[in-house]
Design a protein that fits this description.
Elements: H1 2-22, H2 47-56, H3 62-78, H4 85-96, H5 106-115, H6 120-132, H7 144-156, H8 163-176, H9 179-192, H10 199-214, H11 219-242, H12 249-262, H13 265-276, H14 299-312, H15 315-326, H16 367-379, H17 383-410, H18 424-437, H19 440-470, H20 518-560, E1 565-567, E2 572-574, H21 578-585, E3 588-589, E4 601-602, E5 607-609
Antiparallel strand pairs: 1-2, 3-5, 4-5
Helix pairs in contact: 3-4, 5-7, 6-8, 8-9, 8-10, 9-10, 10-11, 10-12, 11-12, 12-13, 12-14, 14-15, 14-16, 16-17, 16-18, 17-18, 18-19, 19-20
């Protein structure tokens, strides 16, 4: 009996194990191992291909087989047109785990150096976005370790990295403002590798410093960072001077930006004399000590100069520089400059033979130029100058638009893009000055300018939209005619992105003029219109109502106290009766209804401010239920 029972239990246990094998209920497990690629063949590959692959690995050790497969995978990734920098680095690191640095050609190391990290533009955008959001990266460059590893592997092969290889690293550091790393790279290539740096090498180091100063800086670190960057900039200038290296227009622009951020007035003035031939103390005269090799004065240099003078707080010199450098005198006017110090020689025409004609360097102002000028003038508290230059900007906006329309009528597909357009940034500084000083006249005039600008922007959008529908198709692109066939093309790879918003070109070639794009122009007009309408409805009207209310209340308190106030129509300070003041400012006497509500805000003197533009009256507290009202 017991023997039969054990047989039954054994058979039941066997069936249970069999069912468990059929239905596996345990958790799934994954494992991954690294296998040579020749073991896993493609299902669609022919048997001959697999046999040829096995023959190629015949007589090789397993390590050599794996190394060869890793190398083929790396070369396949590098040969792709659209490659992922993460995939390139993964294949490179995977190969270096099975091989030595000598097993890889120098050209492959250099290709990996250029393709194992994202592009400079991507890094610059990503870093700036994180720093604006208050999430500064813990390390200056996220992929600095990769660049160091590849350069170390290049040197381990017995060869030295070339100057172009170090330029790749400097491009990466300049994109994120890693100026300390850029200076370390410069020291390594000059002292360790014994390479001769070029103007581009110093320009990339200057670009790293200038870009870092344009990024947000913590207040506790700002003083130390400004001191360090100023010292590094002067060190680079001394090293360039020791090597007899001329200061190119790119490096000159970068140094000006750095000196502007650190507020080095003496160095900035000296640089303007040596680089552009402009003496900011006497901008319409040639400098006494100049340089024979001067750079062309561009609009970007004009904006940097205006911003520097505005930060220094010298409004008189700011306006003088703007007028002279944007509207210079003709060269013939230099014959009227007196070279003597006698009183009788201060007037009249001097000897023309002893006076050389001098053309002051100048540039055409753009929208940023007027925005910078108005910002610093308004912050300094000069409403007269602010109103003048805002009116000048309005006139310039209309003249530029009329000129553009006439050119589009004659040459619709060869017209140059406009350089100026009135926007919100031009109007807000003047309004801020009026709001701070409670200047009601200037504030209302700014509102009129805004309404006129909104109306003109709408008309411009309608006109250009109709023009876009009626434009003929552009001619087919032919041979480029922007430069002569004999002139060499500009080397874009050596042009530094000096301006962080708009790229520049080498000074040996004239900068390419931007052709008018009607779709882009319509987008800019629509963007400016939306910003103006939003600001006018959400900020201007509220601020005007609040300021008007405060002025009326302040003057009303003087009237109720029996004090005099100034009236413009009488041009004198007079005592105004309360009844006359009420009619003048459109105050209404408070009348409480049965529900306790009123149509305006009750002032302390018992009157209600009910003029147009006030905010809604404050809600009244809830009343208790009165049963007598139901009878």
């Amino acid at each position: 009996m017991g023997r039969q029972l054990s047989k039954v239990c054994f058979s039941a246990t066997t069936r249970i194990h069999f069912l468990r094998r059929l239905v596996h209920t345990s958790a799934r497990c994954f494992s991954a191992i690294t296998l040579p690629l020749h073991i896993v063949h493609d299902v669609y590959s022919s048997p001959s291909t697999a046999a040829a692959s096995q023959k190629s690995f015949k007589g090789m050790s397993s390590r050599d087989i794996i190394q060869k497969e890793k190398l083929s995978a790396l070369m396949e990734v590098l040969s792709r047109e659209t490659r992922s920098y993460a995939r390139v680095w993964s294949c490179y690191a995977d190969f270096m785990n099975y091989a030595e640095c000598d097993d890889l050609p120098l050209e492959v190391h250099q290709a990996v150096l250029r393709r194992c990290v994202p592009g400079a533009y991507t890094l610059r955008t990503w870093t700036a976005r994180r720093m604006r959001a208050g999430q500064a990266p813990r390390i200056p460059h996220h992929f600095e370790a990769r660049l160091k590893t590849v350069v170390r592997n290049i040197r381990a092969t017995g060869a030295d990295a070339t100057l172009d290889d170090y330029h790749v690293v400097l491009h990466q550091f300049a994109a994120v403002g890693h100026y300390t790393g850029a200076m370390q790279v410069l020291a390594e290539l000059t002292h360790v590798c014994k390479l001769e740096p070029e103007s581009k090498t110093f320009g990339l180091c200057l670009k790293a410093i200038a870009h870092r100063l344009s990024l947000p800086i913590y207040k506790v670190q700002r003083a130390d960072m400004l001191s360090d960057t100023s010292k590094l900039c002067r060190k680079l200038l001394r090293e360039m001077s020791a090597r007899d290296m001329p200061l190119t227009s790119f490096n000159l622009d970068l140094v000006m930006r750095i000196l502007k951020e650190v507020l080095d007035q003496e160095g900035f003035y000296q640089l303007m004399k040596l680089g552009y031939g402009i003496d900011l103390d006497y901008p319409d005269h040639p400098p006494l000590q100049g340089s024979s090799m001067l750079s062309s004065f561009s609009t970007a240099a004009l904006n940097t100069t205006l911003d520097m003078l505005g930060r220094l707080g010298n409004v008189a010199k700011l306006i003088q520089t703007f007028e002279v450098l944007t509207q210079p005198l003709p060269p013939q006017a230099s014959q009227h400059y007196s070279q003597e110090f006698d009183d009788e020689d201060d007037f009249g025409i001097t000897n023309p033979a002893s006076t050389e004609p001098h053309q002051t360097p100048h540039a055409r102002p753009n929208t940023t130029s007027y925005n910078i000028l108005l910002k610093h003038i308004s912050r300094a508290g000069h409403p007269t100058f602010a109103r003048h230059y805002l009116y000048q900007a309005v006139r310039l906006d209309r003249s530029v638009d009329r000129l553009l329309r006439s050119q589009l009528y004659r040459n619709p597909h060869g017209t140059l893009a406009p350089h100026f357009s009135l926007n919100r940034g031009t109007i807000i500084p003047v309004f801020g000055e009026a709001n701070r000083d409670k200047n009601m006249e200037l504030m209302r005039w700014v509102g009129w300018v805004t309404r006129q600008t909104i109306r003109r922007k709408k008309n411009d959008i309608a006109w250009y939209s109709e023009l876009r529908d009626s434009l003929p198709p552009p001619p087919s692109p032919s041979e480029p005619s922007s430069r002569s066939p004999g002139s060499p093309p500009p080397d874009v790879s050596t042009a530094l992105d000096v301006d962080l918003d708009t790229p520049s070109t080498p000074p040996e070639f004239p900068p390419p003029e931007k052709i008018f794009d009607i779709n882009l122009h319509l987008n800019i007009l629509q963007k400016n219109l939306d910003e103006l309408v939003t600001w006018y409805e959400n900020h201007y009207e509220v601020a005007l109502s609040r300021t008007t209310q405060r002025v009326k209340e302040r003057l009303g308190r003087r009237v109720w106290a029996g004090k005099n106030i100034y009236l413009l129509n009488k041009n004198a300070r007079v005592i105004v009766p309360r009844s006359a003041w009420t009619r003048m400012v459109n105050f209404k006497q408070g009348k409480t209804s049965f529900s306790g509500e009123h149509s305006g805000r009750i002032m302390r003197n018992g009157w209600v401010a009910g003029y147009k533009g006030l905010r809604a009256p404050r809600p009244q507290p809830l009343q208790f239920f009165d049963p007598s009202s139901m009878s």
